[in-house]
Amino acid sequence: MSAEIELALRQERLLARSAALRASIAEQSAVLDAPFAIADRVHAGARWAWRERVVLIGGTVVVLLVLRPRRIWRFASFGLWAWRRKRRVQAWLAAAGIAPNAGRPASRGSNPAL
Fold it and tell me: How far is CA 69 from the centre of its chain?
């Protein structure tokens, strides 16, 4: 046999083997279809919640105000207290030189090395 014929036969065997392996992988990965479908739905729900976060938060606040106004005020006052303490600690850390960027969020996409 000539080298070209041997090469063509080897190529056909490899193509057939590749097709068989692809079919085998597709068959074995069918088990993962359901978990991936669930993950896709969770991801789509998270993207929706992120896009509609103002409506989602507003709706939650309205529902909580209707159901338990006293609990909302208690939660809000605790949140204000925690925020004030955080700001005090940040200021203290900045004054001590421990946190140079206290109170200032890092800009997105900036590279401090440049």
Answer: 33
What is the DSSP annotation of 30-41?
GGGHHHHHHHHH
pLDDT by residue (tens digit) across 22-76? 999 999 999 999 999 999 999 999 998 889 888 888 888 888 778 777 877 888 8
User: Radius of gyration over alpha carbons of the chain, in Å?
Assistant: 30
Model confidence at 110: pLDDT above 80: no
| Encoded tokens for 49 | 């919640």
Distance CA 98, CA 90 (A): 9
Using DSSP's 3-state secondary structure scheme, residue 54 falls into helix
DSSP 58-72: HHHHHHHHHH-HHHH
Task: Confirm if 90 and 102 have CB atoms less than 8 A apart.
Answer: yes
Query: pTM here?
Result: 0.41
